[in-house]
Amino acid sequence: MSQERILLEETFYVLTKKNSVFRVRLTKKGCKCLRSKKSTTSCSCQSLPRTTLRVVEENSGEQDETDISAYLYIYAYILQNNKNGHCKRERTIITLRFRSFDKYEDNNKEAKRWRNAIKQLIKGEQAQYESSETPIMHKINEQRKLLVLCNPKSGPGRGKAIFQDKIVPILQEAEIPYDLHITKHANYARDFVRTCNIYQWSGVVVVGGDGIVFEVINGMFERPDWHRAVENLPVAVVPGGSGNGLARSIAYYTDEPYLPTPTLPSALSLVRNRCVPMDLVRVENTSQIIFSFLSVGWGLLSDIDIESERLRMLGGQRFTVWSVARLIGLRSYSGKVYYLPIETETKQKDTNGNPIGASTLDLPTEVTLETQEGRQRLDSWYSAASKRSAYFSATGSSYQSTADSSDEDSQGKCRMYGPASQLPCLTASLPSNWVCLEGKFVMVHASYQSHLGEDALFAPASKLNDGTIWLLIIRGNVTRSQLLHFLLGLSTAAHVQNTGNGIDFIPVRAFRIEPDMDERGYITVDGEHVEYGPIQAEVFPGLAKIMVP
User: Fold this and answer.
1) Phi, psi of 176, rounded to the nearest 5 degrees
2) At what angle do helices 300-307 and 317-328 cross, to 10 degrees?
3) Which one of 195, 297, 378, 521 is most buried, counting C-beta atoms within 10 A?
4) Does the structural domain 295-379+420-539 have CATH classification 2.60.200.40?
5) Which residue ranges make up each domain of the chain?
6) pTM here?
7) Which keywords label this protein (predicted)?
8) DSSP character for 167?
9) DSSP class of residue 460?
10) Which run of H or E residues covers position 500?
11) pLDDT of residue 19
12) Which of 424, 538, 520, 530 is nearest to 471 (CA)?
């Protein structure tokens, strides 16, 4: 086995221990420390005492001109086990002192070589160098600025404070510039993404709850260039709302510790710039098309979500309080539920490997949504709440906000683009390989993420990109005791084991809900209230890109 190539090599000294000298080698896999003398010190990557150094500007008059050394600070968030056996990340500052040369300029040049190489490796790029004997400076290609859209009213109303206190310090450590825009009204983020030149940024950072994520994703699909937008502009989520289902799901998927610092996984994802594909679900009702990233609900959980809005100041506790109220005043709804189970697609396949008699639900080659022959499409729709928003961009990291836009364009037309549906329209019959259930339902809830909220592990087997919708159906004959056990089991996923007797949990590719229109209730998409009536959904694997730690 060939020895791994050394990118950089340097000698460092630990000032807290006499005669502790280390030869540090940087390779693609990390740093290797070679000690030259037996020592109790575990590694050369030790912080210098706080009293030893004080950081000043490079051209400041406060500089110690007698010190020709150059210093490189490395901020590390190291995964460690605590006393309870749980993992968490501890922040560590590693200080490397370069003094191999008799001039500060030469030492600083060497420090910058290390800085550039480390930053390139963090980003997954090939570190550029020629040899340690003939060091040549290569300017690192810094990424473009991030666009940050912050909802200051999400959850308990601490969105801006969360970003300033928890995210900004880490962005500054990583030298990542950003433009911050504060939302001023409903659908601000959606209008912003739909109308602005989003390609001046390398990604969209959403600070708030699942509601602002919903706005950003659907704003992208209201652009004629939606395909380029979702391909080139990954989304990152900083939890600041009541539910935070997507942020919790990303941490769960990547085995990243979430509590007690839920914003840290998000901050690390911005630094690493690691993007993975994420499923989206195309949802259609009689008046609009929506692209959903989290869930579709009818019944109990949707009732709790919408009706508890009056308790928003309680944060996530609002769901617990209203769950008790809805359990006491239990409701059920009449209707029909159809679904296409995953196993249906694997029973019979043609010579090309496509299921016979079932929709493949693959992305079509035609990406615009035009009227299909023999089928009335609803792919062009109007958003009554849309407004034209002003936007700004400035050099360097900046905080921007705008006043509320006028209502002159509130009736403006917004066409929804995206991949075309593979399902029959809502008024048409479904194929015979779909399952149909009819009767009374306490709840029907579909999710394509592991978590519906920070404490709601809805679908533990779900992945970000597995092409699966997890459909929970609770019939009207369940008891309050069964429902109580279901709700209590959401935090640990115990509800998955308590199926049967009117409770089914099914992996599907698509589904349709037809509620009895003589009754009234709530239907939600990603926690957003939508029109009550027939609704259907289908999964499109890997349609979006999401940043993960």
Assistant:
1) -105, 115
2) 120
3) 297
4) yes
5) 8-51+67-122, 142-272+385-415, 295-379+420-539
6) 0.77
7) Kinase, Transferase
8) I
9) T
10) none
11) 59
12) 538
